[in-house]
Amino acid sequence: MKSAAFLLAALLAPGLAIAEPAEQKAGVTDYSKRFTDIPAPWKDYFEHAATAMDKPTGLERCLAFPDLPKVAWPQGFSQKLCRRTWELHEAEAGFRSLMRAGKTPELETLLSRYQSIHGAGAAPDNEKVHLLRWQFHSSDAETQKLAEEWVRASPNNPFAHAALGYVLLSRAADARGTKWARETPADALERMSELLRQANAEFNRAIELDPRTSDAYLGQMWISKLDSTIADGDMVFIAANAMQPHCLALAHQRMDNLVPRWGGSIQAMTNYANELKRMVPDNPPLENATWRPLVEMLRDLNTAKDPRSVEYAEELVRHIGIADALDTAIDTFDRTDPEPELRDWRTLAMKLQLSRYGRIEDGASFTVADFLIQRAPHAAGLFAQDVLDSSPDNPRAHYLLAASLYNTEHYEAASREYDIAMKDPDYRQRSLREVTQMWIQASHGTNGAETAKAHAYVEHLIKEYPKDGRARIYRIIVAANQSPEHKPPSAYFDDFLNIADPTDPLQEQWLQRFHWSKEHPKPKSN
Fold it and tell me: Could you tell me the pTM of the whole model?
């Protein structure tokens, strides 16, 4: 009969969805052998990116992250963008905390301080005043209640009126829906316009109280895109630009208003980009907005499936690493790539690069996590956790986080995540399989608590999936661990042989071993 150690070795044979834990020395994972199957230059990029992802904070990860291969981004661009972005993330967390606690007087003090330095050239936190815009642009009931109470408590505070304006603006967008105007019912459009008029009144009141209220101008420029009869975007921009010419958010909003689908043109965007370039020496982040015309041109080329899109995408990524550029280039390379054998690696690297500056969309997070789950499991867990932060019931994210914790030997935490994931039918069988395997691995051949846990899970697996050959393998190993002589009942082997699936690599390996054992029986001892 096979020993428990032999059985465990077979269980962990290559081909399983989950890898053995990464080797770690002094808290640093050695990734030198984890990406050897990937061609240059992407192999080195992924290896260095995985190393950076092991850093403890977002800013440290960002600063340690490699730039994409074959780019010529401006000197120090990535490092400056890292510091600016993660300072904003930190400030955003504090802002949300005050919002959740309903501490509007503290919000007023904070925003007043941010506004006093807003537009002051290259000041590191000169964009934090826009936290109001980012956090109150929501139709969430709690956010609306907070904004309304803020206005009642501080009727002469400009930030309170701007906050309520953004809530109303968001509700207007909800009322309109996502269909084209010609497909939107007339009553929905009228409801939208009524809410936009209310939002515009709040923004006007904010500007009356303090003409420096930047987010009020930006809100009115947004309104002008939806209904130009309520707000004149050009006039609003002129007023805002005279007040705050170095505002990066204003530059991006102006570019948004100038795109062709909102009545602008590529030429108008290019002209404005040339104006911004003259101000870049005083405020380097404005460089990000100067590339918006090329981003918009690439989007149009992608829509038209124009073969020139690849040339534009390569030029864009070569010179700038902002989210708009990378997102749009990913769309291009996903569709067509001059080096098709490298396409998947290139687009995967670009998605990973986007994560350098913060959370990416769920689909990209899952793609990256799937790729890293064996190679850099700790990093894969970060992407799964990002999804759970906004979608705490997402079963795929719980499953990937469980696998990450398993592969980094955090077994108890992994088991809790598997228990959550297996509540979803799509993830139940694989979660039961992997949590069983995990506790077998954690037992290291001993007859302890881990083996008992493995036994409980494998019994569930066999009961619910009676045709699962892997479950029979796990039962053999668990029984071997529990037996004083490490001898499972022979019936367990018969059960496996009766239902084994030779298309499964693990089961096929076990079948081959059984056949070999039958052909080469162990000599009887005298």
Answer: 0.84
